[in-house]
Protein 1
Amino acid sequence: MCGIVGYTGSKDAYPILIKGLQRLEYRGYDSAGVALMNDKTTLHKCKGKVVDLQNHIGSGLTTGTAGIGHTRWATHGEPNDVNAHPHTSMSGDIVLIHNGIIENYDSVRKELIHRGYTFHSETDTEVLVNLIEEIKKSEACSLSEAIRKALNEVIGAYAIVVMSNSEPGTLVAAKKSSPLVIGIGPDKDYYLASDATPIVEYTKNVVYLEDGEIAEIIPGKDLKLFTIQKQNVTPYIQELELQLEQLEKSGYDHFMLKEIYEQPRSVRDSLRGRLNLAAGLVHLGGMADYEQKLLNANRITIVACGTSWHAGLVGEYLIEDLARIPVEVEYASEFRYRNPIITEKDVVIAISQSGETADTLAALELAKSKGATILGICNVVGSTISRTTHGGSYTHAGPEIGVASTKAFTSQVTVLSLLALMLGNKKGSIERSKFLRLLYGLNEIPEKIERALQTNDLVELISAKFKDASNFLYLGRGYCFPVALEGALKLKEISYIHAEGYPAAEMKHGPIALIDEEMPVVVIATKGPSYEKVVSNIQEVKARKGVLIAIVTEGDTQVKEMADYTIEIPETDEIFSPLVASVPLQLLSYHIAVMRECNVDQPRNLAKSVTVE
Ligand code: F6R
């Protein structure tokens, strides 16, 4: 979602801002803009991508050693030049960028109109910048004090960065429920961004702003932090682990393809130091302290959205299967509004790649307020969810830039596999011999993913046959049902083809009506306890002339005879099949999207980090 960048120091701000906005493109957006501070502010903004902004600016004025930039994902008001950020106050004195939503903007707007303010855009942001101006003027206070007072009057979520002609070079930033990171350069020059990706090439020293904190940033001076209640805060400076190379495409055509191919490495990194074959144990650091809580929990509730929710479903199967602890998986957005029964005997686990998803965060906060133990499985180190939870484990997949989640999913499932094994072993609900067999099986997964990636050429050929289809059906049973859901989601989000994932046996209760010779049906039919049942479901599809693409275990002959196309993947224990079976489905969606000339890494309307509810 919206991306924020800012710079103040002795360098030329414009190239830093543009590069920063390009780094944040993966978050998803529909307009972009920058404001630069000279004697007074220069503002450029337009609908479209960062490259459109650069073309729009052309040879226009871009000088200044302080500035702010923004990529906007529309909430209030359509994507157009006027609604794009930055927004200026009525007098032109103050300029502001904002990520989030000001919920009481309408009442504040009416009050400001009453005081003579006029508005040009449909945004809640223009309301905020004028409220700051009104307070600054009427109370004759500094920019940071006016911001502090204004933020006490608004309800909602925000990360903001503000500049004023009256205090050239100063940036003021604030945050509540939307992320903001401040990088501190060697000469006390400052880099601000929604996440660390635009900052890492300049400095590794960062401060993650906490909710309710305001930063007054003056180049050459120490960073000053205080709360909206006016309490001073000592900045906690952390060192970034992120490497610049992780943010480049490294020769791949798209980040998504790079990330699909990174999975042997990312799964290995998720396992590293946690799976000890010699000692025959699993140690999942951040979860181990909560082992007894998890084992004695009334119930474990997993909250997540989208792909992370699919990983959560696999987690439910794993934990119930191996550790015999009841698990429920909830869409975070439903959980938070449905008055769930949660007590201090519950454990709630949030799964989130970004660690910033607004609904997942709110679901966790609700569970925390009811006394539950809250844990996280996140990818982004230092993200809000990882800082809000009592404990948890990082997935260590490395930065995921493609909007469609791939390696984050397999890393989440890897961590959930480790968790289920750890709990099952501790509880004694898995026999030792089975536990050890599964440990060895899990350890072999990266190599099996490598082999699954070798299906790429075949998958590309199959993609060419189906690139013009209008609908797809994905079927799976047991552990492969979430894989079917995930395969369908990948296809629809990047190729804009309608696709549905269904439990294979459930098909005859409705979707079977859709099947005809025009309908490609992707079936995950790997070897496992429900193989024969899936074979029956395949026959039901064939009987109705559906076109079958089957993911099968290497050496399969039975399904091969029935399916139109088969993609063979290495055999695994059934419980790890999602880790391997999802790989050809990721490739299928990728190739179809490329053939349809879709914007694979930044699909329309989607955002990587969904920071509004
Ligand atoms: C789909 C996808 C989304 C995310 C969802 C949750 O490919 O990426 O469905 O999984 O928006 O995001 P996180 O995991 O960051 O909470």
Protein 2
Amino acid sequence: MAIYQIVKSEDEILRQKAKEIEEVTPQVCKLLDNLRDTLYATSYGVGLAAPQIGISKRAIVVDVDDELFELINPEVVEQEGLAVDTEGCLSVPGIVGEVIRAKKVKIRALNREGEEVVIVADGLLARAFQHEIDHLDGILFIDKAENIRQME
Ligand code: CO
């Protein structure tokens, strides 16, 4: 079990486009384990992207309502509608803001077995996927948010 320090928003790695994972090796599975352990070590996080633990590769974990998703090279392949809600980020501690995102998304990715998976999500889960995939493209929620403020 390895818990990493979460990279903060000043760090350049959070602004880079993360590298595609070409093959699901044991090392990639280890990366997913470390992402999961680090996410669960936080009290309020719902997702974490590899750049947030200092690794510029396209892997994310998301857990909303006690269901864990571990995704490699995730992509939004379809989206529908718009919704606005309050977001925060473990790399931007203490800050929240309202972000407009697609209400419903279809995500395509690889799982830790290297199999293609397709997930249809809406609500908070859809938002969490979009937030984490943004991290893989060097985008932080504060780039898109309105009414950015200190969390109360
Ligand atoms: Co974040």
